Amino acid sequence: MIPGIIGKKISMSQVFSDGGKAEAVTVIEAGPCIVTQVKTSAKEGYNAVQLGFGTAKKLTKAEQGHLKELGKFGQLREFRVDDTASVKLGDKVDVSQFQAGDVVNVVGVSKGKGFAGVVKRHGFHGGPKTHGQTDRHRAPGAIGATTSPGRVLKGMRMAGHMGHEQVTVKGLKVYKTDPERNLLLVIGAVPGNKNGLLLISRANKRK
Q1: What are the tens digits of pLDDT across the range 17-26?
Q2: Cβ distance 201 to 98 under 8 Å?
């Protein structure tokens, strides 16, 4: 069985549980995906299944040769599997493999925030706002280490580019699936903007 599916973030909404509690849910368009390649440990060194999702306006000759008559897919992603014996090219993977109550992990690219200071990027509390300080409210403070080692250590938390990086959210509970419309509703938030690409895979354990 293929443990995951490719999708895109549609929107966020809310639902009410049986006890009347409001729950935030993310609506994901998941699939349908087509198996475009099957990798085996004998040939590639590991077992995996490549899925195609979405539609591309134009393909390179290399992509055309790889996909052949399977379709013009805009996204290709791999999922590791234990056994590839039951999978073959052209197989369809849709949201029906998930049921309400399942626990999934979602991988996406977080929203880009541009250049950010240490207060926004790392949660620093800033400098004193009184006692003669005038422009240190959101400053990082000293970054040196005096004579020894006499340099700025690697990994020092400083201002810089924030966001637009791969993020994995684990242990999200599936609230509902709609195979007819290829929709998957999960309780909680997932990374990325609207229409952002997501990889949804079955979780091994609850968060």
Answers
A1: 888 889 999 9
A2: no
